[in-house]
Amino acid sequence: MDHDIPALHGGRPMRKTMLAYGQQWLDEADIESVVQVLRGDFITQGPKISEFEGKVAAYAGVRFAVAFSSGTGALHGACFAAGIGSGDEVITTPMTFLASSNCILYQGGTPIFADIKPDTYNIDPEEIERLLTSRTKAIIPVDFTGQPVEIDSIMDLANRHNLTVIHDAAHSFGAEYKGKKIGTWAHMTMFSFHPVKHVTTGEGGVIVTDDETFYRKLLLFRNHGITKDPEVLWKNDGPWYYEMQELGYHYRITDMQAALGVSQMDKLDDFVQRRRDIAHYYSETLRGIDGISVPEQHPDALSSWHLYVIRLDLDKFSVSRKELFEALRAENIGVHVHYIPVHLQPYYQKLGYTKGICPIAEDMYQRILTLPLFPRMTDNDIRDVVAAVHKVLRYYLISSTN
Ligand SMILES: *Cc1c(COP(=O)(O)O)cnc(C)c1O
Predict the structure, then answer these.
(1) Residues 169, 97: contact at Cβ < 8 Å?
(2) What superkingdom heads the lineage (predicted)?
(3) Are residues 39 and 158 in the same domain?
(4) Domain check: are 157 and 42 in the same one?
């Protein structure tokens, strides 16, 4: 039958237009919020930034939030605030976006990659413990796909060894661990506002924290290391006077972006719920298909589902992951691969990281596929994804009857 033949081999594609793997959802209120700023006096350092920070801090349940021009800049700021410098080791996961590890390099620190757990794909606390040395300064765990890491064990470990935990929660805004929101667990927590993430400011990120010392350092770092705070000035020449006390960067977010963030925050819970519903539907309809595994959930973790990643049992297919990927793309399903393990990147290889240091992550990389997942997907989009996965996988499955 024609509809059983993959589009890659000349059949009719499942959809006429490409379905992205992730995408923002903006409504008229979002647009109006930005336009109001454009009509006002301040398009950059105005009142919307602290309003946005206040909303994020209240949502996360913490005292302080400092917004940055990107999640990457926010992580860089957190590494500065944690005092990471040359000679310091920081343990993170290879199964992440580059920023989780690059921020360590920016500060002159040394990333140490701890392997992941084969079920949740999150960093393994036992691996962290095994890699601790007298030089370990901090841990940067990542809630891969939106499923929280075992943050209680990681905090125990950190507190016993006097380490700072910078929680990369770019995937897990709105997620919970043991019934408690992500944002309150670690010393500092980062959320990203890139358009594929839970809420967007175009580009942007934030660090939330309960620690006032970190908060003050983050403020300095975001703005060239400049302060006008009379309490900390070395001297004071007059009302114009400011001091640069640290080497900071220009990592400020704009009022235009913060206005979008303020409006997007009103929808965060609905967006997370929609993501959970889609993920639930995927798991219910894909579980039991020969040749794939749906994501496993830790009993203490309540994911906010940034990504939906399936694992392929490659022995059961007549083709490689690459061809399955291409076949799904030909159906106009925008599948993706998250992630290429960081230590396998040429830059990291040049630094001396070798293949084989994180065998579970490396094996996992060969088998994963990310399915489209974003709140604006229609029920039809969701059914298209499931139907295309069925169609393509069935076509290439090696018959189990012989
Ligand atoms: C998105 C993301 C970041 C930050 O990215 P920005 O694009 O700089 O906001 C950091 N870590 C992870 C795991 C991410 O997915």
Answers:
(1) no
(2) Bacteria
(3) yes
(4) yes
Residues 109 and 211 in one domain: yes
**Contact, 266 vs 143, CB < 8 A?**
no
CB atoms closer than 10 angstroms to residue 175: 24
Between CA 363 and CA 366 the distance in angstroms is: 5
**Beta strands 188-192 and 301-302: pairing type?**
unpaired
pLDDT digits (tens, 9 = 90+) for 283-340: 999 998 999 999 999 999 999 999 999 999 999 999 999 999 999 999 999 999 999 9
The per-residue pLDDT for range 131-171, each reduced to its tens digit, is 999 999 999 999 999 999 999 999 999 999 999 999 999 99
In terms of Cα–Cα distance, which of 390, 282, 277, 383 is closest to 327?
Answer: 390
- Out of 55, 117, 181, 197, pick the active-site residue: 197
CB contact set of 159 (below 8 Å; sequence gap of 6+): none
Q: What is the pLDDT of residues 197-216, one digit of tens each?
A: 999 999 999 999 999 999 99
Q: Is the CB of 143 under 6 A from ligand 1?
A: no
Report whether residue 194 contacts ligand 1, using a CB cutoff of 6 Å: yes
Domain region containing 326? 268-396
Model confidence, pTM: 0.97
Report residue 99's pLDDT band, with 50, 70 and 90 as the boundaries: very high
Task: Provide the phi-psi class of 87: left if phi over 0, else alpha when psi is between -120 and 50, else beta.
Answer: left
Confirm whether 20 is domain-assigned: no
Final residue in a domain of this structure, among 248, 265, 282: 265
Considering 265, 290, 318, which residue would you say is the last residue of a domain? Answer: 265
Residue 201 near ligand 1, beta carbon < 6 Å: no
Give residue 170 CA to ligand 1 midpoint distance, Å.
6
CA of 113 to the centre of ligand 1 (A): 18
| Same-domain status, 258 and 290 | no
The whole-chain average pLDDT of the chain stands at: 97
